[in-house]
Write a structure and sequence with these properties.
The structure holds 2 protein chains of 2 kinds. Chain A is mainly alpha-helical. Chain A is built from 15 helices and no strands. Chain A has 2 domains: 35-98; 108-307, no CATH class. Chain B has helices spanning 13-35, 38-78, 82-97, 100-116, 123-154, 158-164, 169-179, 183-211, 225-230, 232-241, 251-257, 259-285. Classes of the chains: A mainly alpha, B mainly alpha.
Chain lengths: 354, 288
């Protein structure tokens, strides 16, 4: 078990190191060479009475410059000065913005954002896994129910088209459509969008269905059928497959063929859950960034990116990676426990035995 | 089990969905040509073309990169270079765990710096940069598939027998395993890769257009469907679509008055849905 955490810690540290290298590289690239300045022009720039963007002031300065017999010509000098003044102003604004580093100015706020994002991620991931399993299972059951050809339950075409549109829409698109009736910064909406949009439910329920279908082609299922294990896919209150079990969290189906198929499918689906965890983070960050939800981790990441606070950006990215690694560790731990239980594996040395 | 389209018997399901996609895009183009003003029409369809170009470049990048990494990993393993194989596996493991958004943001951050420094110039150069970035984020899906195919053959006697018979490793891996026995898996991955690429590109470009840099913005990046969706006109069109909840009669004018945003949104969602369906049908038809 210690090895599981060590492996993930090592991976996390190597990626954090990679971010550090990238930070060094990008901070070098974004450094601009210092501008050469001479004392004469600097004196003009420091004069607070001259408004460099005012045409009247520009004309007066140009005339004075020409009368003194300086080079270059007055107009050229004035336009150079106006450009420099404007660049200085923009630079100052930029500098002020860069100072708004979240981590150095409000570390507790940063931690609060991180943990609330972590909570949001956990909720969306858990419901997405349940949703993918349930939808995949439902489709498998409908496929295997003995019905006359062409009488399988199908949604109304308009409903089908709408559900396809919602399932494959980027979340921010649906949020914009719903904006007149639903505030886009509501946590409930973000959870719903994280689960139902971006293709999450459609893609991962399909993956679950594929795994389950492959599992049911294996020899042990055929053998179980020959030995008369219940394999009726009828659904309902007094039927072998109750709705409560289908929509339940654990989906046990004791005494039914599905139980064994599901146990093995769940084992394979674990690898997909890792993928889903990374994708859930991606969709949530995209949602928070695209909807400009202030005070949230995703929005803050975009803001720090905009201000060029690369230290904050790379720390926040490392935070996201940490979430994935924690999820991986939890999945590995679950796998370890399940393998110890079903595969009868001795996975850790027993004390006193060499 | 060969899946055929119910509506067009004889036409495989995957080709049916691709035909639907083409037909749908054509209908939107015709509708836009009638009701949308010319500058917006050009913007929308240039954006669509750019998006598909980036998708193509990113798939090629992902394929090439994964091909080199996977072949390096497998050949190192077969020939006893354990450390090299472990390094490749570590790289793959890290790529798999890093959320795609992190890879994309890092990639676009570097891209932004390159554009600001004028290292990367011109529409073709920037689009290629987009494609390479998205491709590098997605490559592990292709690598996983290529390695999994080789592993599947490793479980049989095929590889051991072929190597004993003197077949060179390169021929065995590239020709026998990947070309002759995994082409369909690769095509399936490419089909599903279109959807992932379009989704990621549109999302990152949408965010980018919201504001990633002062000096690089939607003005000096070539338009894609994502940046067009972030355009203020398109946003207003999408917001207008929400009005039908309070005033259903607004539906009558929605498709003529708010066409830019709706066309862009439809093209994104329709492309994602059709290519997903085509991928599933292709996998079912070829029993992958």
């Amino acid at each position: 078990m210690r090895q599981i955490f060590l492996k993930h810690l090592l991976l996390f540290l190597s990626v954090a190191g990679l971010f550090f290298l990238l930070w060094l590289l990008t901070s070098r690239l974004t450094e601009y060479p210092p501008e050469t300045r001479d004392a004469a022009t600097e004196k003009w720039l420091q004069d607070s009475l001259i408004l460099w963007q005012d045409p009247l002031h520009q004309a007066i300065v140009a005339d004075v410059w020409d009368l003194a017999g300086n080079s270059p010509e007055g107009d050229q000098f004035v336009s150079q000065m106006a450009r420099r003044k404007s660049a200085e102003t923009v630079g100052e604004i930029d500098r002020l913005r860069r100072q708004k580093s979240l981590i150095s100015t409000d570390f507790p706020g940063f931690l609060l954002q991180f943990f609330s994002f972590f909570l949001l991620f956990g909720v969306v991931l858990a419901i997405s896994v349940w949703g993918a399993e349930t939808l995949g299972l439902l489709r498998f059951i409908f496929k295997n129910q003995q019905r006359p050809a062409g009488s399988a339950p199908r949604p109304h075409p308009v409903l089908g088209f709408l559900s396809l549109f919602v399932l494959f829409s980027p979340g921010y698109l649906i949020a914009y459509i719903l904006k007149p009736v639903f505030p886009s910064d509501s946590a409930l909406l973000i959870v719903a969008l994280g689960i139902f949009t971006n293709g999450t439910l459609a893609v991962y329920s399909q993956k679950y269905l594929n795994l389950l279908s492959q599992e049911f082609e294996k020899g042990y299922i055929v053998a179980a059928r020959i030995r008369n294990v219940t394999d009726s896919f009828s659904t309902g209150r007094n039927q072998p497959l109750s709705w409560k079990e289908i929509f339940g969290i654990r989906k046990q189906f004791h005494g039914h063929l599905l139980r064994h198929g599901l146990l093995n499918t769940r084992r394979q689906f674990r690898e997909t859950v890792r993928e889903l965890a990374a994708f859930t983070i991606t969709s949530l960050i995209i949602l928070e960034m695209a909807l400009n939800i202030q005070g949230r981790y995703g929005y803050e990441l975009l803001r720090q990116l905009l201000y060029g606070n690369l230290t904050d950006v790379f720390v926040m990215m490392a935070g996201l990676f940490l979430m994935v690694k924690l999820t991986d560790a939890v999945i590995d731990l679950a796998a370890f426990r399940q393998d110890s239980r079903y595969l009868n594996q001795v996975t850790e040395p027993v004390e006193g035995v060499k | 089990m060969k899946t055929r389209s119910v509506r067009f018997p004889g036409l495989p399901g995957d080709l049916f969905w691709l035909a639907i996609w083409l037909l749908g895009c054509l209908l939107v183009l015709l509708w836009d040509a009638v009701f949308l003003n010319k500058p917006a029409l050009i913007r929308v369809w240039t954006g669509f073309g750019n998006t598909l170009s980036v998708a193509g470049i990113s798939l090629v990048t992902a394929l090439v990169f994964s091909f080199f990494l996977s072949s390096g990993f497998i050949l190192a393993r077969w020939n006893g270079f354990g450390k090299l194989a472990a390094a490749a596996e570590l790289l793959l493991s890290v790529s798999r765990s890093v959320p795609q958004i992190i890879g994309l943001l890092t990639g676009f951050l570097i891209l932004t710096v390159l554009v600001t420094q004028e290292v990367l110039t011109g529409k073709a150069g920037i689009l290629t940069g987009f494609g390479v970035t998205v491709g590098l984020v997605l490559y592990y899906e292709f690598s996983d598939m290529l390695i999994e195919r080789a592993r599947w053959f490793e479980q049989t006697d095929f590889i051991a027998a072929s190597r004993t018979a003197g077949i060179p490793d390169f021929h065995l891996l590239f020709i026998e395993i990947w070309w002759r026995n995994s082409r369909l898996h690769l095509i399936n991955k490419l089909i599903s890769g279109v959807g992932s690429t379009v989704f990621l590109l549109c999302s990152i470009d949408f965010i980018l257009s919201v504001g990633l840099s002062h000096s690089v913005n939607a003005v000096n990046f070539p338009p894609t469907l994502g940046s067009l969706l972030a355009h203020i006109d398109s946003k207003q069109d999408i917001l207008a679509a929400g009005l039908i909840f309070s005033d259903p009669s607004y539906l009558a004018v929605l498709f003529t008055r708010h066409l830019q945003g709706l066309s862009v949104a439809f093209l994104i969602v329709f492309t994602l849905a059709c290519w997903f369906k085509a991928g599933i049908s292709f996998a079912e038809r070829n029993r992958l």
